[in-house]
């Protein structure tokens, strides 16, 4: 039963990866807007720009992992 439940949290296809990256991106934009409200000036801008950069880095790692897994299966 635990293996069936754990399979729900495994990203198997690129489509699933893009859905996860989209979710991360929308959360990052929301967090960026809060940072701009809470920290006016340069501090808020730096924090707001760091959020999408983190999503780009995480998205790249997710897509690389999917490509690597597909290469092993072929």
Care to describe what's here?
With 74 residues, the chain is mainly α. The protein is built from three helices and no strands. The longest helix has 32 residues, at 42-73. The relative contact order is 0.14. The mean pLDDT is 90.
Descriptive labels:
3 helices, mainly alpha, 74 residues, elongated, 0% strand, single chain
List the helices and strands and how they pair.
Elements: H1 2-6, H2 14-38, H3 42-73
Which regions have little confidence, pLDDT < 50, spanning 5+ residues? none
Question: C-alpha Rg, in Å?
Answer: 16 Å
SSE string: HHH
Strand residue percentage: under 5%
How many strands in all?
0
- What fraction, in percent, of the residue positions are helical? over 70%
- Give the overall shape: elongated
Secondary-structure-derived class: mainly alpha
Biggest pleated sheet: none
Q: State the end-to-end distance.
A: 28 Å
Mean pLDDT: 90
Number of helices: 3
Please summarize what this structure is.
The protein is mainly α and 74 residues long. The protein has helices at 2-6, 14-38, 42-73.
């Amino acid at each position: 039963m635990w293996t069936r439940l754990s399979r729900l949290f495994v990203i198997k296809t690129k489509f699933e990866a893009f859905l996860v990256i989209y979710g991360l991106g929308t959360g990052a934009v929301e967090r960026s807007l809060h940072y701009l409200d809470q920290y006016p000036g340069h501090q808020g801008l730096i924090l707001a720009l760091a959020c999408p950069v983190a999503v780009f880095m995480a998205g790249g790692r997710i897509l690389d992992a999917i490509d690597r897994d597909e290469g092993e299966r072929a």
